[in-house]
Structures are given as C-alpha cells and as structure tokens.
Specification:
Elements: E1 10-13, H1 17-30, E2 37-38, H2 41-50, E3 55-59, H3 67-76, E4 85-89, H4 94-103, E5 107-110, H5 115-126
Parallel strand pairs: 1-2, 1-3, 3-4, 4-5
C-alpha cells in the first residue's frame, strides 16, 4: 500500500493542548487525516511501541521525556529507528539543535509553527504525497 495524505499517520507530541490543536488544524488544512497526539514524550513512546506512526512531530520542551530523549528512544528500537522525526523548539538554542542532529532528527521548526513551514518540513521527509 502506498502512503497518501489520507493514510499516513502523523503523531503530534506536545504538552500544551493549544499547540497540539493548532498543529492538528494545520495538518488537516494540508490534507492529513490520521493525526493522533500525545501529551508528553513518555506517552508518545508508548504509542510508538504499540502502533508506530509514519512521522513524529514533537516539541522539545516537555515533562517526563523531552523531545531529544524521545528521539533518542525512538532511534534505539528497530521498528521505529528510521521513522521521520521533526523537532519543534521555541528556543534558538544551537546546542539543542546540534544534539538533535547527532541523534538523527530529520527536520526542525521554530515555534510557533506556520502551516506552510510545517508542510515543507513534512514534504522534506516524505516527498510529495497524493
């Protein structure tokens, strides 16, 4: 089965409800339909272990597991090792971004996320989807 915007599953991970809803709305405007969310990295990791998403879009600054810890955990499991991971960060902290790159992040975006930037980041990791 080839992936389309209707079948691809994008997991949103953010501890702020408003941010999760804004991201979901932006993804729906782009045409995606399967958009579960997790309120923190720990919940996201459990979700990825039981029913992996095709793409993870995660905030950096969260309780329990932050975005980098989640990325590192996802990269250690064979079933999720190559899952595209887009990191969202409110800080322009170069050290965070350098650590993310070392851990294998696929893309990153500054918060607040603009729908057009999100679409470009997803296209960068998936190519053009129908």
């Amino acid at each position: 089965m080839s992936l389309t915007k209707q079948t691809i599953k994008i997991l949103i991970v953010d501890d702020q409800t408003t941010s999760r809803l804004l991201m979901r709305d932006a993804l729906q405007q782009i045409g995606f339909a399967n958009i579960p969310f997790a309120k923190d990295g720990e919940e996201a990791l459990k979700m990825m272990m039981s029913s992996p998403a095709h793409i993870v879009v995660s905030d950096y600054n969260m309780p329990k597991l932050n975005g980098l810890q989640l990325l590192q955990a996802i990269r250690t499991y064979p079933a999720t090792r190559i899952t595209p991971f887009i990191l969202l960060t409110g800080s322009g902290d170069r050290e965070v971004l350098q650590r993310a790159v070392k851990l294998g992040v696929n893309n990153y975006l500054p918060k607040p996320v603009q729908p057009a930037a999100l679409q470009k980041a997803i296209q960068a990791v998936t190519g053009n989807l129908a």
